[in-house]
Amino acid sequence: MQSPNSNLRAFNLAVTTLLKNPSQFLPHLTIPTITHLPEILGPALIQTPAPSPSPSDKPSATPTPTPTIRALVLDKDNTLCHPKTTSFPAEILVKLRYLRTSPTSPFNRDNSILIVSNRAGSHPRYDAEVRALDDELRELQIPVFMLPEGSAKKPFCGTEVLEWFRERGVVDRADEIAVVGDRLGTDVLMAAAMGSWSVWCRDGVTEGGREMNLLEKMEGWVEKYLRESRGLRAPPPRGWTGTGTGTGTGGL
Question: Which of 43, 44, 45, 116 is such that its CA lies 20 to 30 A from the CA of 233?
Answer without folding.
Answer: 116
